[in-house]
Amino acid sequence: MSTIVVDRPDTKELPSLDEALNPSDLLQEAPPIFGRCPVCEKPLRPRCKVTGEPKCPPAGTGYESRAKCSGCGTILVYLGNGKWRPMTDADYTEEDQFADKMGF
Predict the structure, then answer these.
(1) 70, HSE (Cβ side, Cα atoms, 13 Å)
(2) Angle CA(68)–CA(70)–CA(76) in degrees, nearest 5?
(3) Which helix (H) or strand (E) is 76 found in, with range?
(4) What is the mean pLDDT of the chain?
(5) ∠ CA 51-57-63 to the nearest 5 degrees?
């Protein structure tokens, strides 16, 4: 059995491992709608809590509007349009207080 080799000049070569991107270059690729952490300025990549797909949470819905910054660990509340703020005691709902008492 013979193998046919086709020379395709229009194909792109893959970059070598020496030319691979730095992790800091990858952080800059986050869509601006996701926003940045107001504490450490790290680009945020929020994900859906059910499916895990990249998605901003709904604004103003309590627990569902929260995310944790993977850079500094601050729990953030989503305000909409890529804007976040650190969570305060005023953001705790009755469900949050119950969960704290139960140890969740």
Answers:
(1) 6
(2) 25
(3) strand 75-80
(4) 76
(5) 95
